[in-house]
Structure formats: structure tokens, C-alpha cells
What does this fold into?
Amino acid sequence: LHYTSDLNSAYYQIFFFIREIYYGRCLRFLHSSGASIVFLFLFLHLGRAISYGSYFYYPNTWFSGILLFFFLMATAFMGYVLPFGQMSFWGATVITNLLSPFPSLIEWLCGGHYLYNPTLKRFFLFHFLFPFLLIFFLFLHLFYLHFLSSNNPLRNSTNNKIPFFPFIFLKDFFGFILILCLYLLQTHFGISSFSHPDNAL
It folds into this structure.
């Protein structure tokens, strides 16, 4: 691991990782573009769920998905802060100050009254640990989905259930291959820049 969560060296460690480590630039671009691709398809999935009215017909599936969404946003935010560029610093300052109405929450999260070394160390720890919680909520979401079934555009419940294997499995597998192709196109040919220039390296 080449990243150190230190205030004075975090930004330069990212430079070192990109310039001196073999395929470091490729790994960082795969990581950051992968997060952007996940959010792109997550918003499409969320829009479909809203248009189908899934929150009304299947509230357990809906709320497990919303918890999954919040943990994913927290993980992405903490990963965005780790390079500690100008955009990272001010983004973290604004978001952590939103927690000021809650007593002692900023001090607990940041390790003090402002962003400093303990903040980066805690954000690095949370950025590493939250994906394990994400896996739990993902399995919970899939459990509710397969236990209660999913919604349809007509918003009516029928007894004509389609078996998961092979029909839905093949449809999901085809969708996964399509997403993987788009992801590899982005990472290898750079169709679109997902990074902000003030925080890019």
C-alpha cells in the first residue's frame, strides 16, 4: 500500500503512486472511473424504481436499497477526500460542517473541530471498512428482491412468476457484460473525464 493518510504527504503520495508505481495511473483511473460508473448506473436504477413505484409496493426492498445508497455515497465521499487536494479539502469542510447541528458529531468524525491528520486517518479507515457494510446491505437488498419479487411498469402484482434461473440470470448477465464493456471503453480510451480539474492529478 503506497498511500499514507498524512496531511502533509497525502497529495504527494498520490503523485508518487501515479508516476513511480508500475501501472499506478491505470489503477487509480480504474478506481475513480469505476466509482463514477457505479453511480451512473445506480441513478438509472433508482430512477427506474421511482418510476415503477417500488417504494409503495415493496418498502423493504426500497429501504434496504436506500441504505445501500447512503453507505455508497459515504464511501465515495471519503474516498474523494483522501487525495486532499483543494476540491477535497473544501468539499470535506462543507460536508462536515453540515453536521454541526448535532452535538459532538464533527469532533467524533474529524477527530477535532476542523480537518486535520485524524480526519484523513478516520476517512481512510471508513473508506476501507464501509464496502464490507455495503456487501451486507447488497445481500439484504437481493434477499428482499427475491423474497418479495420485483415490481413491473404496470404496477400490478401477478402470480405469473418468472424463475430466476435461467431467464433473469441471463438478462442480468447480459446487462453486466454491457456495463463491463462501457467501463473498459471508458478506462482504456477515456471517452469522458469524470474528474474535476482542480482535484485531478
About this structure: The helical segments are 10-20, 24-52, 54-57, 59-81, 86-97, 105-110, 117-148, 164-189. Residues 162-193 form one domain.
